[in-house]
Amino acid sequence: MFEEILERVQYYKELGLNPLSLATGCAVKIDLIKVVYPALRKMRDRLRNLGLNIAPREDADIFRRTSEGVEIHRRIYRLGREADVDPEDIARVRPDRAITVVQCYQRYVDEPEGFIELLLPVYERIAESNVPISLGKGHSISTPFEDDQFALFDFLKLRGEKEDGYSAANNDTMHIIDPTYEPGDYVQVSGALSNTLNDLFVLGFHENIRIAPVLNAPKEELLDQMWRHAEEFARRLGAELIEVPQPERGRLLMGATVIADMDRHPPTFYDKARKGMKLVATRPFGELSPINVYLAMVIDDTIIPELEEAGIPVSEVERLKEDALKRISTPNINVAKVIYKFLPEDGADPSQHIIAATDVTGPGIYVVRELAESLNSSIKLWDIPVLYPKVSEYAAGNYVIPNATAGTNGAFILVVPDEIVEDVVRELEHAGEDPKVFGEITDVGRVEVSAPPKLRKYVADRKILGQFVIREEAHA
Fold this sequence. Notes:
The chain folds into 2 domains: 3-262, CATH 3.30.1330.10; 270-470, Phosphoribosyl-aminoimidazole Synthetase, Chain A, domain 2.
């Protein structure tokens, strides 16, 4: 029954790829909790002593807007002891900030020490330029191919005088959205670029969008097709596409560094958290579950009877997969415009505005724990609003995807004062969303997140579950 899919698998193999072994969407990210965050904590002081500053973790790098905009100077380096950084080149550019993406051989990034061994030599060589640089946003992904490793630095040089308002920059990349589609399909590139922009949209940035693609393919004609789709995507969005150097090595890669502007203050008012503020999901989340369950069926059709016994026929999995793909490949710019409406003018009182927002993508529900830490608050979740409950429960319960709340180009979680919750929900509904008020701040000054028992249905990863207090009763 999967003959057409298997034909596509053969096409991928002709490109030197096994699509069924590629991580889909944001599942390609190196584990944040076990590897990336511990590595950054260990490197932070060392880098600071070298004149490099790692900015606090945000969904994007936020900085003051300047009158002449931002120049992007892209450099691509080897990792580890072979790092080929030219400090004199960096000294000539004299960048202010850097957005980075590193792609590491998966064998080397099972623990923080291996990650540090690959990255630290690159940073040490950059530091030899004696240019103080703020490392504003880092993105880390794994690859099954050792010769695919590289570090991409988009050095940002701010031109002109500082102005009112802000700019934000972000980078995200992935290998594939849905390997049951051809790699050159528009939805693949659209999904990857939409996911990259999500970290700007969640903060309300949607003006003057610039896209510097990161695209790679094993065949020139496929790469040309991906570039045409990137151009079409930018045209539909009214964004500027910037031509910059590309990795020119390895297999399949799609994503971008993106920059946008805004004349209001982004929702980063973490010290304004108050008891009673609500958590609003712009829609339910968990886009990756049906895609991964569908792939599991292609690989092993013996699970089909299990799915049917659970009340999930094959036709339903396929329908939900297509629904997820449509969501992933549609940019969330209309939600960004809603968030923008509820942000204060720069310098105005933020107390009656959205105070914080985050993107529910790779980490899934774990972002609520990150929010609690940023807000120095306790949060009580009443519900876990997932898009596809049955499929997500099957995916987590059978370890098809251990965190079935994860997604790509996912929903946003907003922290909203109780007085404006109804207004925010109404505006989101007018924008075509399905918002859910699913939790609240219960205390300030103590970090904790309590969740209903149903969280266990959708998350099997014990490391993530350990970050939550699971209540015995769903409404306790």
